[in-house]
Amino acid sequence: MARPQNNYLGVTSARKAVSATLVYLVLAAIALVFAAPLLWVVLASIDPGAQLSVAWPAHPSFDNFAAVLTVDTTLRPMANGLLMCGLSAILTMVVSVLAAYPLSRYQLRFNRPFLYIILFSTGLPVTAVMVPVYSLFVQLNLLDSLVGTAIFLSATQLPFSIWLTKGFMDGVPISLEEAAWVDGAGGLQALRSVVIPLMLPGMAVVAIFTFIMSWGNFFVPFILLLDPNKQPAAVSIFNFFSQQGQVQYGQLAAYSLLYSIPVVVLYIVVSRTLGGAFTLSGAVKG
Amino acid sequence: MAATQTVEVTPRHRTGHARPGSRGVLRWLGPMGPALLMLLLFVAGPILWCFYSAFTNTALTGTGAGNVQFVGLANFQRMLADPQLVPSIILTIVFVVGSAIVGQNLLGLLIATLMQNRGRVIRAIVGTVVLGAWVLPEIVAAFIWYAFLNPEGTLNMVFKGMGLPAQNWLYTTPMLAVILANIWRGTAFSMLVYSAALSEVPPEVQESAEVDGASVFQRFWYITLPLVRRQIMTNLMLITLQTLSVFTLIFAMTAGGPGTKSQTLPLLMYQQAFKFSDLAYGMAIAFVLLAVGGIFSAIYMRVLKPEI
Amino acid sequence: MARRLATAAIAAGLVAVAATAAGCGSSGSGDPNTIKIAYQKFGNYIQGDALFKKVKAQWEKANPGKKVTLVPIQGNDADYKTKLSLMQKSPSTAPDVLYEDTFTIASDVQAGYLAPLDTYVSKWADWSQFVASSKGSVTGQDGKVYGIPMGTDTRGLWYNKQIFAKAGLPTDWQPKTWNDLLTAARTIKAKVPGVIPLNVYVGKAGGEQSSMQGHEMLLYGTENKLYDDKTKKWIAPSKGFSDALGFVKTVYGEGLGPTPQQALSPSIGTQVGGTLLPKGKLAIDLDGSWMPQTWISTGASPWPQWSQVMGTAAMPTQNGQAPGKVSMSGGWTLAVGNKSTKKDLAFSFISTALNKENSLYYDINATQIPVRTDVANDPTYGKGDPTAKFFASLVPITNYRPALPPYPQISNEIQVAQESVVSGQATPETATSTYANSVKGIVGANSVTAS
Question: Which residues of B touch C412 (CB under 8 A)?
Answer without folding.
Answer: 271, 275-276
